[in-house]
Design goal:
The complex is a heterodimer.
Chain A: H1 13-24, H2 46-69, H3 81-99, E1 103-105, E2 116-120, H4 128-140, E3 147-151, H5 153-157, H6 161-167, E4 171-172, H7 175-183, E5 187-190, H8 195-198, H9 215-223, E6 227-233, E7 243-244, H10 246-252, E8 258-259, E9 279-282, H11 299-323
Parallel strand pairs in A: 1-9, 2-5, 2-6, 3-4, 3-5
Antiparallel strand pairs in A: 6-9, 7-8
Helix pairs in contact in A: 1-11, 3-4, 7-9
Chain B: E1 3-8, H1 13-22, E2 28-35, E3 47-50, H2 57-65, E4 69-72, H3 86-106, E5 112-118, H4 145-163, E6 168-174, E7 176-178, H5 185-190, E8 195-198, E9 204-205, E10 207-209, H6 210-221, E11 232-236, E12 242-243, H7 244-251, E13 255-258, H8 260-273, H9 280-288, H10 295-299, H11 309-320, H12 327-344, H13 350-357
Parallel strand pairs in B: 1-2, 1-4, 2-3, 4-5, 5-6, 6-11, 7-10, 8-13
Antiparallel strand pairs in B: 9-12
Helix pairs in contact in B: 1-6, 2-3, 3-4
The chains are: A alpha/beta, B alpha/beta.
């Protein structure tokens, strides 16, 4: 972990001091844009309410009709916008709003249009952070942008999971797909730590792992899209991974087999994530359009930019950890 | 002097249509149709030569008629014409191509070669990118069946192009060909009353219409138009993507999701009784799907397909008649429910509707 030394200050200290210091200096309440999720409106008159129900039923039936007759569109990647908006997002929203109570900061750093690459840290044993990031971008961004996540090949090997992932707009984390999406002006989300990040032991929480080979930077450079660093706090503690049954993992063909205080001891009940409080912060975008065309082939520049993104995410993580009052509230 | 076009695989439905189409071209003087079996359809004014391209007699045909354009359509995944073993199809695909290319190499008159290939040369695996371009290397080579044949045929064609740089070689990789007359394995699959699918997978499919296939073959067999280039390798597919689940709903044919091993078993059972040709590469298509990029086709070859994937499929569906659950009837049922709810008053049955939506 030679590259971990780019972080200039001691990694453990802020976390240890965190609770006391935060009580002394309360974090400024972030100004959060009103979520676009239906806010409770003042009770409408009965006739109006009937109308609303009418419209909902009509909308639901029209949706049902389109679905069962197959009259809907998917894009080349298999992204089913209608299903994602109407069903998949609604399924994730309770988890997002009520369970993890995700707080979103810096949403204005995501451009309103055109391609951008969101680079986030990865944690939590199961990739719930990716899904929550997708809901966060869609529900908080004024343009209701859809995040297209790049996922590991394991996702596309598993039955059912691959089908849902494609329909939710995810695709394989490879340079071809990422570049195609970015050039089409899509918002692409990537977690360059990959399995090293999501499957790291609990003791290493909030320590960024190596950022792959920095392929995401060259892809963004080729497409000329900005890189938006994103720090997710709270996902590390949903499944505290205290051990890794490597032999079992190899047998099952997965990169790691998590052992948490509850899993696999309590069976399926142990797979319920802990209700931690999450914060997702988007940082200042790093522009990539000022470089020459051959810059994407320059390994030195790639490493520097990768380090810059990584450092910015790590700094923000520590800052958010210092502000955090408790893991659960 | 006009052109002399030789078309292989003329006994198949697509080959026959292409023979009839190309002879109407003013530039074309004569069309020589070749196949090992006598075609069941008319070939117009074309000259039919019954010869097996697996034998060296094909060289004589090329020399005798001073052929200058060869359109090689005898690369197919379907069943042999007039019944026969699967191994005969494979032999025609591979050995036939080798013989034909050998004959072309010897022939001083051949100036242009068009080969029908398939996008199945890309394979299709979870590790593959979502959209294949002409230069994408396959992550896992097809292990058998038509996909392997097509990959091998393309290898031989590349070798031929190196040895005869004076011959313009065009390889067209077609997506799944559908249309009112389609007789491919996929068309048979879509005609089953209940379609077995792989549980937990919803592949992305792309189609190309028969009429577009004929048109692009004609384009490739001619001199290139201004500003276009018709030698090289091109993906040919209609715009857009349909999921298998969408296809089944639009056809009104219910699906039967099966676990992959069970589907393999059902597939071999169906194959044994001869209902449909459920080959391993079709299983692969139905698991992972396949989507190709068609920018090269538009910008270099200069071809704009008339039909999108969706329109191709609609045209095919019209020709096949209704399934067990025709979409119109299902749609009407939903409309009736909507009318009923309207009559009952808006606030009733909200829960059932919400439940039905799931």
């Amino acid at each position: 972990m030679a590259d971990a030394k780019v972080i200039p200050f001691d990694e453990d200290r802020p976390r240890r001091r965190m609770p006391r210091r935060v009580r002394a200096v309360p974090a400024p309440e972030p100004v959060e844009p009103e979520p676009s999720a239906p806010a409770p409106e003042p009770a409408p008159a009965p006739a109006e309410r009937g109308d609303a129900w009418d419209r909902r039923i009509a909308g639901g039936l029209a949706f049902l009709r389109r679905r069962i007759t197959g009259e809907y569109e998917v894009d080349d990647f298999g992204y089913d916008k209608e299903l994602t908006d109407q069903v998949l997002m609604s399924l994730m929203r309770p988890l997002y709003d009520k369970y993890f109570r995700v707080e979103v900061k810096g949403i204005e750093n995501i451009p309103a249009e055109g391609g951008a690459l969101i680079v986030a840290n990865h944690s939590g044993t199961l990739p719930l952070d990716g899904l929550m990031l997708q809901v966060a971008v869609h529900d908080h961004h004024p343009a209701e942008r859809h995040l297209r996540l790049l996922a590991a090949d394991l996702v596309f090997m598993l039955p059912v999971v691959n089908e849902l992932a494609r329909k939710a707009g995810h695709t394989l984390a490879c340079a071809e797909d990422a570049q195609r999406l970015l050039e089409a002006g899509e918002l692409v989300g990537v977690m360059p730590e990959g399995f090293k990040g999501i499957g790291k032991p609990f003791g290493d929480r909030y320590k960024l792992q190596r950022f792959g080979r920095g392929g995401f930077v060259s892809t963004a450079l080729r497409a000329g899209t900005p890189i938006v660093p994103c720090s997710i706090v709270g996902a590390e503690e949903i499944y505290p991974m205290v051990g890794n049954a490597k032999t079992l993992a190899r047998l099952l063909g997965v990169p790691y087999f998590p052992i948490t205080p509850t899993f696999p001891w309590l069976g399926p009940l142990g797979a319920v994530p802990l209700p931690t409080k999450w914060t997702i912060q988007f940082g200042e975008p790093i522009p990539t359009d000022g470089y020459a065309a051959e810059a994407a082939e320059d390994p030195m520049l790639m490493f520097n930019l990768t380090d810059q993104v990584r450092e910015q995410i790590q700094h923000t993580l520590y800052k958010l950890l210092v502000q955090r009052r408790s893991v659960f509230f | 002097m006009g052109k002399v076009v030789l078309v292989t695989g003329a006994a198949r439905q697509l080959g026959g249509r292409f023979v009839r189409r190309i002879q109407r071209d003013p530039e074309v003087e004569r069309v020589i149709a070749v196949d090992a079996a006598t075609p069941p359809h008319r070939l117009g004014s074309a000259e039919f030569v019954r010869t097996d391209i697996r034998q060296s007699s094909i060289a004589r045909v090329l020399a005798e008629h001073a052929v200058d354009t060869v359109v090689h359509l005898a690369v197919t995944g379907g069943r042999p014409v007039g019944g026969g073993a699967h191994s005969a199809v494979k032999e025609t695909n591979v050995i036939g191509t080798m013989q034909l290319l050998g004959a072309c190499q010897k022939s001083p008159t051949v100036r242009r070669l068009v080969v029908k290939s398939s996008t199945s040369v890309y394979g299709g695996a979870p590790r593959d990118p979502a959209v294949f371009t002409e230069t994408t290397p396959p992550k896992s080579l097809p292990s058998g069946g038509f996909a392997k044949d097509a990959a091998e045929v393309e290898g031989y064609v590349r070798g031929f192009a190196r040895r005869r740089p004076d011959v313009a070689v065009c390889v067209l990789r077609f997506a799944n060909i559908l249309g009112p007359f389609a007789d491919s394995a996929l068309a048979e699959y879509f005609s089953m009353p209940v379609m077995p699918t792989v549980l937990g997978y919803d592949p992305r499919l792309q189609f190309v219409h028969e009429d577009d296939v004929l048109e692009v073959l004609r384009l490739a067999a001619q001199e290139p138009r201004r500003g276009t280039l018709n030698s090289g390798t091109f993906n040919i597919a209609g715009d857009g993507v349909l999921l298998l689940s969408q296809c089944s709903r639009r056809l009104g044919r219910p699906t039967l999701p099966l676990l992959l091993p069970a589907l393999t078993w059902v597939g071999s059972a169906l194959r044994a009784v001869g209902v449909t040709d459920f080959s391993p590469e079709q299983m692969r298509l139905l698991t992972h799907g396949r989507v190709v990029e068609t920018t090269q086709m538009r910008e270099v070859l200069g071809f704009e397909p008339l039909y999108t994937t969706t329109e191709t499929f609609a045209d095919f569906a019209r020709s096949r008649g209704n399934g067990l659950l025709p979409p119109e009837r299902v749609g009407r049922a939903v409309d009736r429910v909507a009318a009923m709810l309207d009559a009952d008053g808006p606030r009733d049955d909200v829960d059932t509707v919400e439940g039905a939506k799931r």
